[in-house]
Amino acid sequence: MTNVITIGSELAKNVFRARGADASGAVAFRTKLRRAQVLEFFAAQSSWIVERYPSMAIQ
């Protein structure tokens, strides 16, 4: 994975979406997470900035 500095997250009831961007703003990853996976996913990331999006905003 490239050097991700920003992670955007779309909050929902059961399925969450996250995308990572590098320093230039290019998308480094897009992923779908179940509620049980969210905490583990963010805990495993190195330092980053989190952006929250309302539902359907990061598609």
Short recap of the structure:
This protein is of the alpha+beta class and 59 residues long. Helix content is 15%, strand content 42%.
Description:
- This protein has one helix spanning 35-43, and strands spanning 6-10, 15-21, 27-34, 49-53.
- The chain has a 4-stranded mixed beta sheet, covered by helices on one side.
- The mean pLDDT is 79.
- It is an alpha+beta fold and 59 residues long.
- β2 (15-21) and β3 (27-34) form a beta hairpin.
List keywords for this structure.
four-stranded mixed beta sheet, 42% strand, 59 residues, alpha+beta, single chain, 4 strands, globular, 15% helix
Rg of Cα set? 11 Å
Task: Give the % helix.
Answer: 10-25%
From the N-terminal CA to the C-terminal CA, the straight-line distance is 21 Å
Mean pLDDT rating: 79
Low-confidence stretches: none
Q: Pairing-aware structural class of the strands and helices?
A: alpha+beta
SS elements, strand count: 4
Beta-strand proportion: 35-45%
Which shape, going by the Cα principal axes?
globular
Largest sheet: 4 strands, mixed
The strand line-up of the biggest sheet is 3-2-1-4
Structure annotation, total helices = 1
The helix-strand sequence is EEEHE
